[in-house]
Amino acid sequence: MLNNDQPICKDCGTLFASNDNGSRCPNCGSASKVILAQLTIQLRIYMRWRMLGKRFGKRVFELISGHELFRKENRMVQKGRLVDKENDWYEEIIIDPKTGDVIHETKEKLSNHYGHGSAKPKQQENSND
Ligand SMILES: [Zn+2]
């Protein structure tokens, strides 16, 4: 069996201290818990869409939006990403779906993001998506 049966709060995503019956979320007090492994599967089929813009058969931008598990805080977040090759622009935004607060935001030149055209060797980012 997977060792993934740690329950988390269905409402706010906080890890429960125990899997006992009647245990409550240490954060919001909710009694609805869900097993993380199940939640991960749910998340995969959760809203996630991807849009590709093409002009003259060439891909000019890519927009990805959806929900995913924010591993750092073990809860669900909304994530949007724009890759605009035509305008050399990259944007990434992570939003707390409960409060609408922006958790993380990146806006930069696409060439900066991927480090192309730079004379200096850049540190490689390991994004384990
Ligand atoms: Zn909670």
Structure described in brief:
This protein has 129 residues and is mainly beta. Helix content is 12%, strand content 40%. Strands 3-4-5-6-7 form a five-stranded antiparallel beta sheet.
Q: How is the biggest beta sheet arranged?
A: 5 strands, antiparallel
- Overall average pLDDT: 72
Low-confidence stretches: 43-47, 117-122
Tell me the number of structural domains. Answer: 2
| Beta-strand content bin | 35-45%
Structural class by helix and strand composition: mainly beta
Distance between the termini: 24 Å
Query: How are strands sequenced across the largest beta sheet?
Result: 3-4-5-6-7
What is the count of helical runs?
2
Heterogens: zinc ion
Shape field: elongated
Rg over C-alpha atoms, rounded to the nearest angstrom: 19 Å
Q: Secondary-structure element sequence? A: EEHEEEEEH
Helix content: 10-25%
Oligomeric state of the chains in view = single chain
Strand runs, count: 7
Explain how this protein is built:
It contains two helices and seven strands; from the N terminus they run E-E-H-E-E-E-E-E-H. The protein folds into two domains: 7-44, no CATH class; 47-114, no CATH class. It is elongated. The strands form two sheets. The protein has a five-stranded antiparallel β-sheet with strand order 3-4-5-6-7. Mean pLDDT is 72; it is low at 43-47 and 117-122. 12% of the residues lie in helices and 40% in strands. By secondary structure, the protein is mainly β. Zinc ion binds next to loops.
